UniProtKB/TrEMBL annotation:
Residues 237-522 form the Dynamin-type G domain. One of its GO terms (biological process) is mitochondrion localization. The keyword Transferase does not apply. This is Dynamin-type G domain-containing protein. The keyword Membrane applies. It comes from Thyridium curvatum. One of its GO terms (molecular function) is GTPase activity. Its main location: mitochondrion. It is a multi-pass membrane protein. It comes from the Eukaryota. Residues 464-479 have a biased composition (Gly residues). It catalyses: GTP + H2O = GDP + phosphate + H(+). Residues 22-63, 105-150, 452-495 are annotated as: Disordered.
Length: 876
């Protein structure tokens, strides 16, 4: 095997320059034409010398190693940049989703736990907890429905539903179109909400997790996902790669590390000595200074913060490693004496750190397993003693590590001590097959039988033999090649074997690095993009169905609102008309009835008072007056009764309108007609005062009217009336006398005058007294009528009764008007709310549709990164 000449080869230098120019760290990207790793491109030609495709078997010199490494590095950078961009885009998408979730709480598919194992489907993803399913609510025989969706929001209707009972909820879940299948819900991995809150039933849980709770849970998930993406980005931006060297106590781990470094840096001893993790890094990462940073317990190492570590010289390392009470790990910065072609640490492609771990024992196994699990560890090199094979501790560790990290590299050390090497090889490989079949499959690359102590190393700086001449510790190292040509040959073989190991390890580190660094990012991106895509799809569908729902609702609301507005005006006019018609009807009727009653107060048909004779004329007059007044009052009462009935009719008419237009919402007031007109009815007798006078008994006008009407009363009566009237009246007698003289003639007059006067007087007196039952009521009626007219009795009562009716009718009318107004306002409010929901849903639909498209696009980009394949042009 040809070992590197010690100077950078021409090709390596060219590739180094190319990498410096286009390593992905210098600002250029793989998308640049010149830098893209596209077969046939300048970068490709430079990197691979296309006419000479590389093969692992052709790694016969340093330049080929460098070329292969460079191709890997370009390939790696290409994928890294794609992933970085994707991470940035996904972070943007998640931030957008977070914002959207704040304004339009995203629907989140929830699934209910099922107790029926038959209904549980196997999870398509390992490690995905299948804890919840809503199958409980699904009819077992039914085909998979779109899954129940619980959204945190939105309409009053939804809210009302959220308040409903468990049964109602079940019904609702079954009745509602389902947008998410339980399977989709199970497919959520990163954004899956942990809804396992104690023993709460899912329905109660959903109730307890109202929109804001779900939104904030999702918000929290998104935040932690963004955080994780940032750390993944940091991780893939980090060009360093860490190789953990572990194995049984005294297996030769430190010797192996020193052999790799070609320097005796780490203390070797026949008895267990390494008790802390020693990470060996290139001094260029410490401003070129060789020193040891012993990291304080519980401190997070920061090279720029000296409070996190203590500085020691490389010579102090042995002491540090052997005796440590203060530290559990140290960083060892050393200059690599090897060239970039040979060096693992300083290979010009990737910064590799070697970590020498304490030997595995019952105390350290756990710590080392934890250490190995750290995501910075790209490769685990397991050193096993050829003499001891795999101990129990080693097996346990390997089994665990194989499950955690697929990248195991096994070094069987101390092979020089084995006599029957073939048997040893076979036995160890059999063991490897049992422990990690994957590693066994690639045993030629991943399992190496070497003798680390046969590799010449420089002594520790400042050590006794300080020079750089090859020396070895034990094994064949002590042989003098010049004395023993056979020994020299054996050593060469050991060195060759070790170099083959180094090449494999280097290739392995470079190749697997892509996987170990990029795979977690790729997987995480695929998972989160799947989640985002599912969530966006669901929410786009929800937004669309929300739009459909509210559009339908609007189609129903708007005509109802319009007709309600119209009806409100019409019904108001109609009720007003009912009120006005009823009141004017009541007024007119009352007026007519009272007037009639007053006008006919003296009508004997209605006046049922017996005239007892002249002696009781005054009592008779009082009785007549009372009768008349109570008759008028009775007519008022009658009017009130009639008004009451009319009011009942009016109230019922308004009520009918209310029920017709408002249905159950009509506030049916309790109307009691009997409480109308409950005031005292004797008010009339107190309002007017009609004293009985003598003249009331002699109503001349009525007498005259009566006389004109009654035929056959004759001239005598006329005369008697004239004379009597004069006598009794006491004035204007001359006119009457003259008129009598004209009738009778002057001669006759002289003869008849005296007896005629007497007769007339007697007749007149008799007639007048006789006419009292007719004239008195008339007279009293006239008096009452004029008195009532003076107090505007008819109008006052008509107004009062009509006013009462109006007041009573106002109640249902106002209630109806308010009800209609309320209904219009409610509908208007609902319309506003629905319009708002529609606008928000439209925005959400647009947003989620874009998110579906963007996440699918990103998913395709990430999915296209083939980390399992090999860089084009490199055989594997
Ligand atoms: N013959 C032979 N001896 C070896 C080989 N490798 C290491 N040794 C010896 O084995 C002993 C232990 O080596 P270390 O490198 O200290 O072992 P280790 O695994 O680092 O020990 P701890 O870290 O303390 O568990 C030393 O005396 C080495 O010289 C080898 O390949 N052949």
């Amino acid at each position: 095997m040809t070992v590197g000449s010690g100077s950078t080869s021409e090709h390596a230098a060219r590739l180094q320059a190319l990498l410096d120019k286009d390593s992905g760290y210098g600002g250029s990207t793989v998308d640049d034409e010149a830098g893209a790793l596209i077969p046939g491109s300048p970068a490709w030609d430079s990197a691979t010398q296309a006419d000479r495709p590389l093969d692992s078997s052709s790694y016969t010199n340093g330049s080929h190693h460098a070329q292969a490494g460079a191709v890997h590095q370009l390939w790696y950078n290409k994928h890294r940049v794609t992933l970085e961009r994707s991470i940035n885009r996904v972070i943007e998408l998640l931030k957008g989703l977070q914002e959207k979730n704040a304004s339009w709480p995203a629907h989140y598919p929830t699934v209910q736990r099922t107790d029926d194992p038959a209904l549980q489907r196997p999870s398509s993803r390992p490690g995905f907890p299948h804890t919840q399913s809503m199958l409980e609510d699904l009819p077992t025989a039914s085909p998979p429905h779109p899954g129940a969706l619980r959204r945190s929001l939105t309409s009053l209707e939804d809210h009302a539903k959220a308040e409903s009972s468990r049964d109602a909820e079940k019904k609702r879940i079954n009745a509602e179109p389902r947008l998410v299948t339980p399977q989709i819900a199970q497919e959520f991995s990163i954004l899956k909400l942990d809804l396992k809150l104690g023993a709460l039933h899912q329905t109660e849980l959903v109730h307890s997790l109202e929109k804001n709770s779900i939104a904030s849970l999702l918000d929290g998930k998104i935040s932690s996902s963004i955080k994780h993406l940032l750390s993944l980005r940091e991780r893939i931006e980090d060009r360093s790669s860490k190789v953990l060297v572990t194995g049984d106590l005294n297996a030769g781990k430190s010797t192996f590390c020193n052999a790799i470094l070609r320097r005796k840096i780490l203390p070797e001893d026949q008895q267990p000595c390494t008790s802390i993790f020693c990470e060996v890094l290139h001094a260029s990462e410490n401003n070129g200074i060789e020193e040891v940073h012993a990291v304080h317990k519980d401190a997070i190492y920061d090279r720029n913060d000296e409070t996190t570590y203590d500085v020691f010289s490389i010579q102090d390392l042995e002491k540090l490693v052997l005796d440590n009470a203060t530290y559990i790990q140290c960083k060892v910065y050393i200059k690599d004496i090897r060239t970039v072609d040979e060096s693992l640490l300083n290979n010009g492609v990737v910064d590799i750190a070697l970590i020498d771990a304490p030997g595995l024992n019952s105390d350290t196994t756990k710590t080392t397993a934890l250490f190995a699990r750290q995501e910075e560890i790209d490769v685990v090199v397991f050193v096993v003693s050829a003499a001891n094979h795999f101990t129990m501790t080693a097996r346990e560790f390997l089994l665990a590590a194989a499950a955690e990290k697929a990248y195991l590299f096994i070094v069987v050390n101390g092979f020089d001590m084995i006599r029957d090497q073939e048997r040893c090889q076979k036995m160890i490989l059999d063991q490897v097959r049992g422990l990690s079949p994957q590693t066994y499959k690639e045993a030629s690359e991943l399992v190496h039988f070497v003798s680390s102590n046969a590799i010449p190393t420089s002594p520790p700086p400042g050590g006794p033999d300080g020079g750089d001449s090859g020396s070895s510790s034990g094994g064949g190292g002590g042989d003098d090649p010049s004395d023993d040509p056979k020994g020299k040959g054996k050593d060469k073989e050991k060195i060759r074997d070790f170099e083959v190991l180094e090449q494999s390890l280097r290739r392995f580190v470079l190749e697997k690095r892509a996987k170990s660094k990029l795979t977690p990012a790729k997987n995480y991106l695929m998972n989160i993009l799947n989640d985002v895509n599912s969530l966006a799809t669901v929410n786009a569908e929800v937004a669309q169905s929300e739009i459909d729902r509210v559009t339908k609702e609007l189609e129903e609301i708007e005509p109802v609102l319009e007709s309600n507005k119209k009806a409100k005006d019409e019904i108001s006019a109609e009720t007003e008309k009912i009120i006005e018609d009823t009141c004017s009807d009541v007024y007119n009727q009352t007026r007519a009835m009272i007037n009639f009653s007053i006008a006919h107060a003296s009508d004997p048909t209605f006046l049922d008072v017996h005239y007892p004779g002249l002696l009781s004329a005054f009592e008779y007059a009082e009785e007549v007056k009372e009768a008349m007044l109570s008759q008028i009052a009775a007519s008022v009462t009658e009017c009130e009764e009639s008004a009451r009935s009319k009011t009942v009719v009016g109230v019922n008419a308004i009520k009918q309108l209310g029920i017709l237009h408002l249905g159950d919402e009509y506030n049916n007031l309790n109307f009691r007609p009997d409480v109308m007109f409950r005031r005292r009815r004797d008010a009339l007798t107190r309002q007017i005062e009609i004293p009985i006078e003598l003249w009331d008994f002699l109503d001349w006008s009525s007498l005259l009217q009566r006389q004109e009407k009654v035929a056959g009363t004759g001239m005598a009566l006329t005369v008697a009336t004239a004379v009597g009237g004069r006598l009794i009246g006491g004035y204007g007698w001359m006119d009457h006398a003259l008129s009598a003289a004209r009738i009778v003639g002057n001669d006759n007059l002289r003869r008849l005058i005296v007896p005629a006067i007497v007769v007339s007087l007697v007749a007149a007196a008799g007639y007048v007294l006789n006419q009292i039952p007719q004239s008195l009521p008339q007279r009293l009626s006239t008096k009452i009528s004029s008195q009532l007219a003076a107090i505007d009795y008819v109008h006052a009562n008509s107004s009062r009764i009509a006013g009462s009716v109006r007041k009573v009718l106002r109640f249902p009318a106002d209630s109806l008007r308010e009800g209609l107004q309320r209904s219009v306002e409610q509908l208007g409010g609902r319309r506003e709310e629905t319009l708002k929901v529609r606008a928000e849903s439209a925005v959400a639909l647009k947003y989620f549709s874009n998110l579906v498209r963007d996440s699918a696009h990103q998913r395709a980009a990430v999915g296209g990164i083939d980390l399992d394949g090999h860089p084009p042009g490199l055989a594997h």
